[in-house]
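Table S4 entry, Arabinose ABC transporter permease.
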Amino acid sequence: MALSAGNRIGLAGAAVVGVAFGMARYAYGLTLPGIRHDLGLSELVLGLVSSATFAGYLAGLLLAGPLAARHGSRAPTTVGGACGAAGAVIVTLAPTPWLLAVGVVLAGSAGGWVWAPYSDIVTRAVPVRQQSRALAIITTGTSGGLLLLAALAVLAALGPWRLVWAGIALAAVAAAVVNLRLVPRTGPTPRPHPRDGASSPAAALRVPAAYSIVFFAVIVVYLTYAADVLDRGALPAAAVPALYAAVGLTGLAGAATGNLARRLGSRRVAALCLVTVGAALALLGLAGDSLTATMASAGVFGVGYMTGSAVVAVWTAELVPDRAGAAFTTCLVVGGVSSVVAPALAGAIIPGLGLGAVLVLTAAVSLLGGAALVLPGAPRRAPVGTDAGRGDA
């Protein structure tokens, strides 16, 4: 039976986003203990390299829009696949820290190139009733990528950590081929014309942008240092791939984000996700030497991470339906900036406070952010171009 447009694009997008986010963007955190051991880098340098990967991601976000405007929304997804593959190859073969950093940054840029363009692809090629589901499936592809990353980590446990990056290169090529086969070519992204009486997109996106700043900062701290927590303790080597597998497995719950947002409202879903991620960070920071606690933390984090990422795509498409890609990019850019700052800041203060204390402090930020989203009297924004809001959107 032929796949519907929503399922076809959703599956292809999930493959590309899964490699770009679940693998290329976060493999640095997984392989960080091996990189530290082989190259002898300090905590500050490791934190700066991690921040540089998100700077690459931010650059991809900023360049994807102009490329889509000239060549269509599928073009950035193709470039992102190429960056992921090339960056992973460079890391696999890099003989020096500087060349390794170049490869990590290039691979990290893949996520910026590929994620936001799918919002425009979905809103232009998928029937309205299927759009929320397709967007959630695409984002939840990250969970599949994390599961593959965990499998590669098991393989790498038997050999060098560079095997992880070699596997990512092969996965990036495969995902790019699937994307070209299943996603239709689109024309240049049209420039929208403001409607008379329409609300300002910037005003409509104020709350989801604030959420993105907090959310992406706290998740990058978790994913950068989770493997390091386990490596510093007395846990078995298999604990690291098991943690990533747990995140990926429970993160599959993010596929239901569209339905959940329709029931509760995107804002409430976002608040719940910040609380969930905060609980996972606190558990990791306070009991990182317990296998049971770390696995519980990973499971909780997976749900909050994937649902919290998917709700940004759903939320922005609700608020600015005629400029879904641009709206999503706006939130990803501000979130990307916080993703650049967070690891560098964490790397700078870990020597003084300790990794556990930094994770607990990050948990407090996440919990406070979740509480702020549901404070009584907080403003509600109507979708741009409509006369009334969609309840809690």
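Residues 385-393 have pLDDT under 50 and may be disordered.
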